[in-house]
Amino acid sequence: MGVHPIAWGVIIWLLTMLIMFTILALRTHDRYELRFYLRCTAGSLTILIILIPIFLLEGFIPWPF
Fold it and tell me: Please, are residues 64 and 23 in contact by the beta-carbon 8 Å criterion?
């Protein structure tokens, strides 16, 4: 049994958003843009941290052991 396609897509999308906003935050020189990008990074990381245990408990992602 593999990873559910929707769970896989959500995890990939959130990781992509996390990487993209982190890179944008590192490249900006405006403090307001920096604050925006860091909040977006924190938001995507928070959602990812919340969804991975839910996907594990619901069986969308197989247990690693």
Answer: no
